[in-house]
Specification:
Elements: H1 11-44, H2 50-72, E1 78-84, E2 89-93, E3 97-98, E4 106-110, H3 118-121, E5 130-139, E6 142-150, H4 167-175, H5 191-197, E7 204-209, H6 215-229, H7 231-237, E8 239-243, H8 246-252, H9 255-258, E9 264-268, H10 284-290, H11 294-306, E10 314-316, E11 324-326, H12 328-340, H13 345-368, H14 381-393, H15 395-404, H16 410-419, H17 421-427, H18 433-439, H19 450-461, H20 465-492, H21 494-501, H22 510-513, H23 516-525, H24 531-537, E12 545-548, H25 556-565, E13 571-575, H26 589-597, E14 601-606, E15 608-609, H27 614-627, E16 635-636, E17 645-649, H28 654-668, E18 674-677, H29 683-693, E19 697-698, E20 709-712, H30 714-717, E21 722-728, H31 730-735, H32 740-748, E22 751-760
Parallel strand pairs: 2-4, 7-13, 7-14, 8-9, 8-12, 12-13, 15-16, 17-22, 18-20, 18-21, 19-20, 21-22
Antiparallel strand pairs: 1-2, 1-5, 3-4, 5-6, 10-11
Helix pairs in contact: 1-2, 1-21, 5-6, 6-7, 11-17, 11-19, 12-13, 13-14, 16-17, 16-19, 19-25, 20-23, 20-24, 27-32, 28-29
The structure holds adenosine-5'-triphosphate.
Length: about 750
């Protein structure tokens, strides 16, 4: 029984709300124009003291952000109204807007403000001082519908789900056709989701939930909430959100901007080592091995192996001098002292050099300072210091030092290790022959599983001057991108400011006022970067908060990397251990987190699936039981009225039958998207057949998700959703990997409306 009563607002109500909403949009336009004008003013101003320039660059950043934000919240600016028992009334929207008059009355309350929370939590049983909750639906700037809930047990209407907030608006959102881009859920956040979104900032929060329970949506809204609520703390260190692959990041990329937040760094694991683009592929077994904790030991041993111990004395021939000798005992003593310092390899090299040069200088001094009369050595300490200085400069000495203790980049260390079975044998005695063979490969690009290893290597090696130079270059490239972005924003708003200010005179575009190079130079003068720019370019950056989506896929080595990026351990970890596809992924949160926080983490569970209708969830539940009989599927919030169909076809007719089914389903879609999920081994063949028959079908490594028909493997489909899904060869998917049942569970739960299964016989 519903504990809310719904009454029907009239056309007059719609008219009144339209007036209010139009007023809000007018105010939004005013704010955008003001920010745009100020941006142009700031771009135009030049010179001044360093401090003045610094302030001006902050202002440029602030106004550019504002122009962007005011544009991004255009759609659905205001979506709710709370009428409270005390007669007060609040409109709820994507951002806060205040009256421009003297007293700054709130006209629109940001959904993240504490007082807006009742919009998501108030129920008839616990109305929290709210009498009526109104949902406003708008299209562009027009109010198209209202839906009211009166929170009064006495007038509660029968039917519906008592635990849902704003049920009618929620169901409308769930039934709407998909677009290929994730939408925000700010209008219809449910109570269990709100609890996660507004959970405290410190500590590790794990959000476990089955498919379609809104984990991704909640993770994104939590990022927006945390930035709003803890802006001072988080704006300096930034927030990092890690997703499983670039297709997924494109899928979610619109959500934070529409919540007026642009300061979150979105990255895949493959992008977390600045300067490396990890797009190479490798067998799943190799990736799994590289994810194991033992690889930390392998890398440490690989570094030690590069600290070379000669068996024989080394001869160093200096021009016009006798040959110097470096015996193994000296090298060993120098190596041990350098190691004992505990410094990373590259930084310990200086200590090693001191020891070796000291011994060589003693040899030289012995010879040239020898008293022909047999007395004490004729050289004093200053002379010997000068000999040491000269020896350091000798190319022959440097060459020997480089050979004994080479300065290494992480890339060099790892590429050399993979390329040489002998090196692997020395570094990995704890692995067996088959495992060692998995690590061997020729140089040429990096895989996602290499990224945590590069990071580990960077820790072991320490940063040398070359790494610092490379970082500065990356920062410069990002700064340039930013400078161009600011000018783009200013150009986009040119009609307003330039026409106002240069009426009748010569019209100057922003490009005439300043170009990207000049803006970039100016930024460098005062060393001003956005947090995201610094963080993206700097491997050693530590974030204020880290959010990980599909976190079950992370290997132990990837967890090590992420924990380094977040020493405060303020993290939100979102995923579903039943959907783990990666062989090195985690079947247990406790296991993944124990090395870093022991049992000091909080668990929140999401239990309702908003995506997957009950008919499809019933099929998926059978697979879930095969993964682990103790696991329970989430409850579906709705039925679709369409039972999944399951058709066996002769293997030779698979492509033809799929094309027929896909053509029929694509034709039946009013709007919305069709996803075709196929086993890895069939994606090329079936993708080509579909693309030939349906030119709109998107196929490939990074398919365009906004296409009406998209062909994907399970790994690509992770985290995505479609109105209709055609699933090909479920048995092949299940048999295709040791985690095949989880892959099938993922594939079965991608549809919001209908599912069809085609299996070859
Ligand atoms: N409160 C809500 N209001 C409207 N839509 C919602 C709500 N919660 C979730 N949804 C919708 O349900 C769908 C599934 O959400 P989401 O992708 O975040 O789930 P998930 O738990 O991450 O799923 P998976 O584990 O399969 O990746 C999305 O379309 C999302 O917009």
């Amino acid at each position: 029984m519903s504990r809310h009563s719904a009454d029907s607002p009239s056309d007059d109500d719609i008219g009144r709300e339209q007036e209010y909403v139009s007023m809000l949009y007018q105010r939004l336009d005013g704010l955008r124009e003001q920010a745009s004008r100020r941006l142009t003013e700031q771009l135009r101003s030049t010179g001044g003291t360093l401090q003045a320039r610094s302030q001006r660059d902050s202002a440029v950043r602030m106004y550019a952000d504002q122009v962007e934000q005011f544009s991004a919240v255009e759609s659905g600016l205001c979506f709710g109204r709370l009428d409270r028992d005390d007669g007060s009334r609040h409109y709820i929207g994507r951002i806060g807007i205040f009256d421009s008059g003297g007293d700054y009355d709130p006209l629109l309350m940001d959904w993240r403000a504490p007082a807006a929370r009742a919009f998501y939590l108030a129920t008839a049983a616990n109305p929290q001082g709210v009498r009526r909750r109104r949902h406003l639906r708008t299209r562009q700037r027009k109010v198209t519908a209202l839906h009211d809930e009166v929170l009064d047990l006495a007038t509660a209407a029968p039917g519906g789900h008592e635990e849902l907030t704003g049920e009618a608006s929620l169901l409308a959102a769930l039934d709407a056709g998909r677009t290929g881009r994730m939408r925000d859920i700010v209008e219809t956040i449910q109570a269990e989701q709100d609890r996660v979104i507004r959970a405290d900032l410190p500590g590790v929060l794990v959000v476990q939930g089955g498919p379609g329970t809104g984990k991704t949506a909640v993770a994104l809204h939590r990022a927006a909430y945390l930035l709003y609520t803890h802006r001072r703390e988080l704006s300096t260190r930034g927030v990092l959100l890690v997703g499983p692959n670039t297709t997924f990041l494109r899928y979610i990329s619109q959500v934070l901007p529409t919540l007026a937040e642009t300061g979150v760094l979105l990255r895949t694991q493959a992008d977390l080592f600045p300067g490396v683009t990890a797009r190479r592929t490798e067998p799943a077994a190799t990736a799994a091995l590289k994810g194991r904790p033992v690889m930390a030991e392998v890398l440490a041993a690989a570094v030690r192996d590069r600290q070379w111990m000669p068996d024989e004395p080394l001869e160093i021939e200096l021009p016009q001098q006798e040959v110097l000798l470096l015996d193994p005992a000296t090298v060993r003593a120098a190596r041990d002292r350098a190691r004992r310092s505990g410094r990373p390899h590259n930084l310990a090299r200086a200590l090693f050099d001191v020891e070796i040069v000291h011994v060589l200088a003693a040899q030289v001094a012995e010879r040239i300072g020898a008293d022909p009369l047999g007395g004490e050595n004729l050289l004093d300490e200053a002379d010997v210091a000068e000999i040491r200085r000269e020896l350091r400069e000798e190319p022959e000495v440097r060459a020997v030092l480089d050979r004994l203790w080479p300065v290494l980049t992480p890339q060099r260390l790892l590429a050399d290790l993979y390329a040489e079975p002998d090196r692997i044998a020395v570094a990995a005695p704890m692995l067996d022959d088959t495992e060692r063979a998995l690590l061997h490969r020729e140089p040429g690009g990096w895989t996602p599983a290499d990224v945590p290893l590069l990071d580990e290597a960077a820790e072991l090696l320490g940063e040398d001057e070359r790494a610092a130079t490379a970082r500065r270059e990356r920062i410069r490239a990002l700064q340039r991108e930013y400078a161009e972005g600011v000018l783009e924003i200013a150009r986009g708003s040119r009609s307003i400011d330039v026409e106002d200010e240069f009426e009748g005179g010569e019209i100057l575009g922003v490009a005439d006022l300043i170009d990207a190079d000049r803006l970039l130079e100016r930024q460098e003068e005062v060393d001003r970067l956005t947090t995201a720019q610094r963080a993206a370019a700097d491997r050693t950056w530590t974030f204020g908060h880290v959010i990980v989506d599909e976190a079950q896929e992370l290997s132990p080595m990837a967890w090590r990397l992420l924990m380094r990026r977040c020493p405060s351990r303020s993290m939100t970890i979102v995923g579903d251990v039943a959907q783990t596809g990666a062989l090195a992924g985690t079947p247990s949160w406790a296991e993944a987190l124990a090395p870093y926080v022991a049992d000091r983490w909080r668990l929140e569970e999401l239990t309702v699936s908003y995506r997957t209708p009950s008919e499809i969830m019933a099929v998926a539940a059978g697979v879930l039981a095969r993964i682990d009989p103790a696991l329970r599927p989430p409850r579906s919030v709705r039925d679709s009225g369409a039972d999944p169909w399951d058709r066996a076809v002769p293997a030779g007719r698979l492509a033809a039958e799929l094309v027929t089914a896909a053509t029929a389903e694509a034709g039946a879609l009013a709007d919305g998207r069709l996803g075709v999920i196929v086993p890895d081994g069939l994606v090329d063949e079936l993708g080509a057949a579909l693309a030939a028959a349906l030119p709109e079908a998107a196929v490939g490594e990074h398919p365009e998700l906004e296409s009406r028909v998209v062909v994907l493997t399970v790994a690509q489909a992770k985290g995505l959703e479609f109105d209709v899904v055609l699933l090909v060869d479920p048995d092949g998917i299940e048999a295709g990997s040791p985690r095949g049942a989880s892959d099938l569970y993922v594939a079965l739960t991608r549809a919001t409306q209908r599912l069809g299964i085609i299996r070859p016989t």
